[in-house]
Amino acid sequence: WDDPDGGPEDSAVSPKDMRYPPIPFDKLEVGQKYTGTVASVLDFGAFVDIGAEGQGLIHISRISKERIENVRDYLEEGQEVEVWISGKRDDGKFGLTMIEGIVEGAGGGRPRGDVSAFAELSPDDWYDGKVSNIAPFGAFVTVTLPDGPQADGLVHISAIRDGFVDNVEDEVEVGQDVKVRVQSVDLERGKMSLSMKPAFGGGGGGGGGGYAPADLSAFEGISSDTWLKGKVARCASFGAFVTVTLEDGSTADGLVHITQIKDGFVESVEDELEEGQEVQVRVVNVDVASGKMGLSMKSPEY
């Protein structure tokens, strides 16, 4: 037959190499199964390309029913995996799971978990946790006890820190390591309430190993015009945490908010900074009570 375009009838491009339009976010449904390709592996999980407009995150707790110490023991870049949509967020991001049936049901609920190991814990004790998901009303955190038991709980937006929190994503991000206290446990519903705020009276002690705010007394009287040496400890969507060292050897971590990295608009923190990078910072505020310090990489305004 004659090709009306006058082009060759055969093509060197195979169907395998052809690109298809990405799946729109609004077409993704919780519980749907896809075959995807691991795009990147991180300490807290892996991003997987399922052919959608964006990549989905499989949190470490959603890779296997067994407890996983190292994601890279299970996944590697380029690996094909079968996944299910576990949840969708209003900002266009979505979560994945490799465990069938582990989804955040249509009403926004989370899967029922075994929280019996957490029922008798003191609300004054602190435990290690990792942020597994973020919602407008708070953050879901996977808590791990020293002897191994693990479960998810909710840190309500009002329990993230002292003072008013306008946006959860300005305070924490998925994969971030945090310290939490268990406030209440609902065994029947498999739910647990957590707090990142200090307990009244200082808290501490007990099986969780006491947690106290960082000692920032050495930084309290430093002029905001003074430049100090720092090293980027971690990057987040809202800024970078920097370890600052004084001449007398005192060190502490502070936050350089995304608006304090440089003059002008910063679209992505990781476009400007990376972990381990040495930077010059100024101390702009110190909250000794909560152990938090605000830093800036911008020149002081006169």
TrEMBL record:
Gene Ontology MF term list: mRNA binding; structural constituent of ribosome
Pfam families linked: S1 (PF00575)
Spans annotated as Disordered: 1-21
Record InterPro entries: NA-bd_OB-fold, Ribos_protein_bS1-like, S1_domain
Gene Ontology cellular component annotations, sorted alphabetically: cytoplasm
Domain S1 motif residue range list: 31-99, 124-197, 225-298
SUPFAM superfamilies, A to Z: Nucleic acid-binding proteins
Example of a GO biological process term: translation
Spans through the membrane: none
Role played: Associates with the EF-Tu.GDP complex and induces the exchange of GDP to GTP. It remains bound to the aminoacyl-tRNA.EF-Tu.GTP complex up to the GTP hydrolysis stage on the ribosome.
Name the UniProt record assigns to this protein: S1 motif domain-containing protein
